[in-house]
Design a protein that fits this description.
About 10% of the residues lie in helices and about 45% in strands. By secondary structure, the chain is mainly beta. The protein has a domain of about 140 residues. The strands form three sheets. It has a six-stranded antiparallel sheet, with no helix packed on it. The chain has a four-stranded mixed sheet with strand order 2-1-4-3, with no helix packed on it. A four-stranded antiparallel sheet has the order 9-8-11-14, with no helix packed on it.
């Protein structure tokens, strides 16, 4: 026969004491500030991002490592990060060795230079840049491995803009650098690679480069 269970009644002052003790315990607990990384790149202030086919790991420092080849972090003109690309977990090969530095691709447009670009890294399409694309900085560390990497850039001219001169230039540049305490990227000058097109350039370009990565 199951005994009847009577409700436990406590004086109000006991309940107040228990609530106070719980509050003190929570406040006194140490706080762990975890860092979050997406494919090796530290991310902060990331909002409205949906990631598919990801592996999530807690590393030896207690930080969160989100792994899903194909995704990259891009920084807009306002400096805020966003996720670009799509998951390529089924076919991408993640290098076992990681670069010593972080690498970013920076696009600096000019309203009088009308070129579209395609960037390929190690045989895979990395980024398409339209004729009207705005300035951006995009992380490319996760697509690189220490040693020789194949970089291919295709530049296609659009209609010439009236009034353009040779001094009007748009450029693609790759910088290496390191992350600051807040996850921001600190570039080292000069750029490790660049391609510049001016307003008077009308020929298309399809070039391959051997990019040495540390």
């Amino acid at each position: 026969m199951t005994p009847n269970r009577l409700p436990i009644q406590m004086p109000i002052k006991w309940l107040h004491a228990l609530a106070l003790a719980a509050t003190v315990l929570l406040v006194s607990m140490p706080a762990w500030a975890l860092d979050i990384y997406l494919n090796g790149a530290k991310v902060t202030n990331l909002k409205n991002a949906d990631l598919m086919n990801c592996t999530v790991k807690f590393d030896s420092n207690g930080d969160i490592q989100i792994l899903s080849p194909g995704y990259r972090i891009e920084y807009g003109a306002d400096g805020q990060p966003k996720v670009v690309g799509q998951s390529d977990l089924s076919s991408a090969k993640v290098p076992t060795l990681k670069p010593k530095y972080r690498y970013v691709l920076v696009y600096e447009p000019n309203p009088k230079v009308n070129f579209a670009f395609e960037v390929w890294v190690n045989g895979k399409p990395f980024r398409k840049i339209g004729l009207d694309s705005a300035r951006f900085t995009v992380e490319m560390t996760q697509d690189l491995a220490p040693g020789a990497n194949a970089l291919r850039v295709v530049a296609k001219p659009g209609d010439a803009i009236p009034g353009g001169e040779e001094s009007d230039a748009a450029g693609l540049r790759i910088f290496r650098g390191e992350a600051g305490p807040d996850g921001s990227f600190h570039a080292k000058s000069p750029a490790v690679w660049d391609l510049v097109r001016t307003a008077i350039d009308r020929q298309g370009v399809d070039r391959s480069y051997n990019l040495a990565i540390e």
